[in-house]
Design goal:
By secondary structure, this protein is mostly helical. The protein has a domain of about 110 residues. The protein has 5 helices and 2 strands. The protein has a two-stranded antiparallel ribbon. A hairpin with a 6-residue loop joins β1 and β2. α1 runs antiparallel to α2. The longest helix has about 30 residues.
Length: about 160
Amino acid sequence: MTPPPRGPPPLHSSPGGQVERYQSADDAGGGPRPAARDLARRAALVTPLVALVIGLWRGPDAALAVVFALGLLVGNFLLSAWILGYVARQNPGLLMGVTLFSFVFRLILITVIGLGIKELDLVDWPVFCITLIIGYFVLLVWEMRSVSFSLASPGLKPKPKEIWE
């Protein structure tokens, strides 16, 4: 008698017992996209309040700077999630290199957009820069509380009722 296989059963197996395709973290509800969407949702909650407070303190140009900066951050995180999710599905071996180069590319893109905004003189530049820097870290730290650092449940931490259903 052979012992039962260890670990979870294959998700998509043919009658012969061979796995037809592997399940990615995105298919399982994990991966970068749900985390980026959750981060965008959190930014959408806080942006109006921060823009209102800063706008009352420094004027409408400062409020617009907050909206632009947080919008740029959310776009950066969503672009990152799309790139990493795409590469993870297509060729996981390239993931580390693409992660590094996409990070550098996105920093250059943010810099170019920021300098364009400065040259157009649309917003309060110091508020834009400070919001960009502080917002980046605040959103990441806020999201860290919700992310599961486990391969058993990648992506966002499951809610207690999702585990038992």
